Amino acid sequence: MNLSTAQSLKRAKEVGIRKTLGSDKSALIRQFLTESGLISFISLLFCLGIAIVAIPYFNALSGKSISIPFTNPIFWIALFVGATVLALFSECILHSLCRVLRR
Predict the structure, then answer these.
(1) Calpha distance 16→103 (Å, rounded)
(2) Distances (CA, A) of 83 to 19, 39, 92
């Protein structure tokens, strides 16, 4: 999220230039939401990989036995909803692109 914040000024300039050149509003929204969704999905996979590697070490250190419930559909629904909310949050709230696109 911090990297997205740092890039938001450049993205706002990009949106302004693309709108000046005649880009369609729906195409801009679709592009940025797709980019945001892909970044959220890739980071989700990366974090799952880190968790899979780290859980055995955590279990050994803490004396607990936790695992990731890959077979539970609620787990996957929660991951999907979380990634979607993150994508929407980073695009609409963090970048303020909704305000730029309305002009």
Answers:
(1) 10
(2) 28, 9, 14
